[in-house]
Design goal:
This protein is α/β, with parallel strands linked by helices. It has a single domain, classed as Undecaprenyl pyrophosphate synthetase. Strand 3, helix 4 and strand 4 form a beta-alpha-beta unit. The longest helix is centred in the middle third of the chain and has 24 residues. The structure holds farnesyl diphosphate.
Length: 256
Amino acid sequence: MRSEFQLGITMKVSVGHLAIIMDGNGRWARLRGLPRTAGHKAGLNAVQGVMRACEPHQIRHLTLFAFSSENWRRPRKEVNLLMDLFVTTIKKELAELVKKNICLKFIGDIDAFELRLKQRIRQAEYETANNDGLHLNIAVNYGGRWDITQAAKKMAQRVQDGELQVDDINTDTFAGFLCLNEIPYPDLLIRTGGESRISNFLIWQLAYSELYFTDCLWPDFNADELAKAVDWYAGRQRRFGETPEQVSLGTGKSHA
Ligand code: FPP
């Protein structure tokens, strides 16, 4: 499940999987005397910019936190706007996503959404399923604790059905029930908006990811900001529990 990386100081590191917590839309709008909803619309433009900027960095998987399990607590008007934005964006952009060879997938408790959004989501996933360009994962009504709980439930069901033995459960089998189980774990997490926390995003999958926090508000995040984050990542040494020497010399188990 590990991403591609090579070793030592001279290593070439690539961000195969980038995850982003897009924070700061509301503050961006407030700074301009605009309603929070204007911040989310501007945030959507930033999403499109970052998607375009992924290719030069060879980012294959991009996972965006668009709506958390906790975001339902926001004012009704804002939640409605976000739902409308998701529906209209999927409708408007689907043909373009197909053309650009982007594979779109949604993760989270989709069942909680209204029918028209669920239908759009399934349609978009279906129409882009065979694309092999950028894999764009959008987390909606997603929470890391929800993810772990739903995985535990599915696994328990398999045990109850006699299809899985308790003794066969380990971190790998468990991970197989989590969202994003078919792709490498994120190499890099970016959180914009100045907060330094994970906020219940991909809490299992981010265990060994590099975490990059920036004050940049999400609507201002662009190709230059992405390049800064990727440069920062390139200077990190990923050790996966090994010593710096093992990593530099390539003698550790994570390189076997
Ligand atoms: C957090 O900023 C942002 C969100 C909860 C929504 C993010 C959604 C988008 C950028 C639209 C993306 C749409 C698609 C289809 C991917 P905040 O509102 O918490 O900002 P604040 O911390 O400044 O208040």
